[in-house]
Write a structure and sequence with these properties.
Elements lengths: L2 E6 L16 H13 L2 E6 L7 H5 L3 E5 L5 H13 L4 E4 L1 H5 L1 H4 L5 E3 L4 H13 L9 E5 L2 E4 L32 E4 L2 E2 L10 H5 L4 E2 L2 H9 L7 E4 L8 H14 L4 E6 L7 H9 L2 E9 L3 H6 L6 H13 L3 E8 L6 H13 L4 E6 L7 H8 L25 H15 L2 H9 L3 H20 L1 H9 L10 H7 L4
Parallel strand pairs: 1-2, 1-3, 3-4, 4-5, 8-11, 11-12, 12-13, 13-14, 14-15
Antiparallel strand pairs: 5-6, 6-7, 9-10
Helix pairs in contact: 9-10, 13-15, 15-17, 15-18, 16-17
């Protein structure tokens, strides 16, 4: 029996979800496809399972998936595997847009969606056929790179198998039982925010699985101890379809609760929000991004501050908790907009938040803009995790934008705000606040060298601030 090993590299730095690891679905679905094909499959999600290179050594082929921040780790793994004489196939968002770079470390690269490409690749592998007819595949031939055309996005997502979570095999103590279960019901996004690479990876066309197919999968996880996280980039992008799914979930009377990602415009449809609550939704992750109108326009969010305000009111009224997501560092941002953002988040009584640093991810319009304007400060992909400043912002020095993120987390998760949540009996939020404060302290300790570097890069004339102001935003607190 031929053997394939799939590897999902671990994130190199701490992030808001470091203690809540969830596998991406790509490796699980591809592993399931290969298992159904008759291959022996091993899957190493490093957040859950340490790589056993003795197991890897017995593989005929190794597949490695990577996002931008895990690319250096992915390349290091690929180099080690190739040194063992095993061919490496790489995929994921980063190598989709950086195939030439990836081919320095891998034998093959799959750009974009991988299910059909992997199946065709293995067909050629097993029969000894060539690679030229396999769409989405990149490889080297006679010393030159070959990038086959990208196939049209898959229209029938029901053809993909349900992910076989038994492939995870987490190490003892890491995740003995996976109780938060990732499910993806759609791909693509009709919006095209300048900082996002989703449309470059999956396209603007909104494609979704049939309601029957989704319900059949959800029945597998119908246990009140479980929680479902719908991985969709915008769960409610097609409202009629979303309502159909929610009504089917209500009829099933599922015992689990669930969370998902939505836009603020969901508040325009009260019926939809009520159906979400009735179907078991307890928290939504909302990409508010900014309360600065200029920044919303710059990122092409097609969203207003009034819509953000309305979303908070509607969701809170329906009893759905809000995890707010904000991005700092657009050209229209400055310290005034940073303070306004964190003030909004605390006044809106969001359950939890994350304040991320704008990051020029390959495949996004913003990345191309930063490259053209020569504003990229660091090319170390491991820093591209939205927690490190890697480009030169217009309204801040690098150091001050880094401080702005730490300042926001410190303000939102302050002891004062935590006490308020205790009196409101918001125990989950209290627990997250404790975790976030500890994460902030640990992050600063582990990133002392990086903070020193960005501090050295700031011009003196741009960083002369009052003693009182220093005390408010000090990194040392």
């Amino acid at each position: 029996m031929p053997k394939i090993v799939f590897i999902e590299p671990q994130a190199p730095n701490l992030h808001i979800f470091s203690h809540f690891p969830l596998p991406r679905l790509g490796g699980l679905i591809l592993g399931t496809i290969m298992k159904e094909r008759g291959w022996e499959v091993e899957l190493f999600v490093e957040e859950l399972r340490k790589i056993d290179y003795d197991v890897v050594a017995a593989a005929d082929l190794v597949g490695i998936s990577t996002i931008t921040s895990t690319a250096p780790r992915a390349y290091a793994i690929a180099d080690r595997v190739r040194a063992m004489g095993i061919p490496v196939l790489m995929g994921g968002p980063h190598v989709t847009f950086m195939a030439e770079e990836a081919l320095e470390h891998a034998d093959f690269v799959v750009r974009g969606e991988g299910e059909a490409a992997l199946s065709e690749f293995v067909d050629a592998w097993e029969t000894g056929g060539g690679w030229s007819g396999i769409a989405n595949l990149s490889y080297r031939e006679d010393g030159s790179s070959v990038n086959n055309p990208i196939r049209p996005a898959a229209g029938d997502l029901d053809r993909n198998p349900y992910p076989d979570f038994s492939l995870l095999k987490p190490d003892p103590g890491r995740a003995r039982t996976l109780r938060t279960i990732p499910v993806q019901t759609s791909r693509g996004c009709p919006f095209d925010c300048s900082f996002c690479s989703v449309t470059g990876m999956f396209g603007k066309s909104y494609r979704f699985r049939s309601t029957e197919n989704i319900i059949a999968e959800l029945r597998k996880y119908n246990d009140r101890r479980n929680s479902i996280f719908f991985y969709d980039d915008n769960f409610a992008a097609h409202r009629p379809r979303t309502k159909e799914l929610l009504e089917a979930m209500i009829r099933e009377r599922f015992a689990f609760t669930w969370t998902t990602q939505v836009r603020a415009d969901i508040a325009r449809d009260i019926e939809l929000v009520r159906l979400m609550k009735k179907a078991g939704c307890h928290t939504v992750y909302v990409g508010f991004e900014s309360v600065n109108p200029r920044s919303l326009a710059d990122m092409k969010k097609r969203q207003t501050v009034a819509e953000i305000d309305l979303a908070v009111k509607v969701l809170r009224r329906q009893g759905i908790k809000i995890h707010g997501m904000f991005v700092l560092g657009f050209d229209g941002d400055d310290w005034a907009s940073v303070k306004k953002t964190v003030k909004f988040a605390t006044k809106a009584r969001l359950a939890t938040t994350q304040f991320l640093i704008l990051t020029p991810l390959p495949g996004s319009e913003f990345y191309e803009k930063m490259c053209t304007e020569k504003r990229i400060a660091f090319r170390d992909w491991s820093l591209y995790d939205a927690h490190h400043v890697v480009f030169r912002p217009a309204g801040f020095t690098l150091f001050d934008l880094q401080k702005a993120q730490l300042f926001c987390h410190k303000k939102f998760y302050s002891l004062k705000q935590t006490v308020r949540k205790i009196f409101a009996r918001e125990w989950l939020s209290v627990g997250v606040a404790h975790y976030a404060r500890k994460l902030n302290r640990t992050w600063k300790k582990r990133n002392r060298t990086f903070l020193r570097v960005v501090a050295l890069l700031r011009p003196r004339k741009e960083t002369e601030i009052s003693v009182d102001y220093r005390e408010k935003i000090s990194l040392e607190r």
